[in-house]
Amino acid sequence: MPKRFRLTRRFPCAMTEDGYRRLRKFANEAGLDEGEALSFLFENFTSVIDEDNLTHRLRLFNSELEARKK
């Protein structure tokens, strides 16, 4: 029997404008709302990412983070 989809947590989330646009685009293409899209991505995280690419992108993001906050 499939798991019942219940939203059990709500949390304030700060996102960049680019990140939110990409989330909305993904959710729209998948026929989901933004919360459902985030749930899908995190429930299936290890199967939807490329680990090498993630590590590289995370390093880049972290190196630019302070400059982006100004």
List keywords for this structure.
plasmid; 4 helices; 70 residues; 67% helix
Account of the 3D structure:
- The chain has 70 residues and is mostly helical.
- It has one domain.
- Helix content is 67%, strand content 0%.
- It has four helices and no strands.
- The chain has helices spanning 17-30, 34-43, 45-48, 51-69.
- The longest helix is centred in the C-terminal third of the chain and has 19 residues, at 51-69.
- It is globular.
- The model has no long low-confidence stretch (mean pLDDT 89).
Strand content: under 5%
DSSP helical segment count: 4
Radius of gyration: 14 Å
Low-confidence stretches: none
Shape: globular
Structural class: mainly alpha
Strand tally is 0
| Helicity, as a percent range | 55-70%
- Domain tally: 1
What is the average per-residue confidence, as pLDDT, rounded to a whole number? 89
Biggest sheet features: none
Distance between the termini: 49 Å
Order of helices and strands: HHHH
Explain the layout of strands and helices.
Layout: H1 17-30, H2 34-43, H3 45-48, H4 51-69
How would you briefly describe this protein structure?
Keywords: Plasmid. This protein is mainly α and 70 residues long.
